[in-house]
Amino acid sequence: MLKQIEITVEYFRQYRQKLGFSNQADVKNFFGAKDITPTVDFNYIDLLNKRLYEIVGRLNEVVVDEIKINNLNSFRKQNIDRVFDIMKKGNILPKLNNQRRRPEQVYFSWIQGYIISNYFSKAISIIFGVDVSAISLIGDDDLRNIKTFKRTAKADLEITLDKKEKVIIEMQSGFTGTNDIKQHKVIEAKKIFNETGKRTLAIHFDLYNGQVAFIKLDEIEDGSVNWITRQQMEGQTVFNIDQNYFVWKITEKPIKYKDIKFD
Question: Residues 38, 97: contact at Cβ < 8 Å?
Answer without folding.
Answer: yes
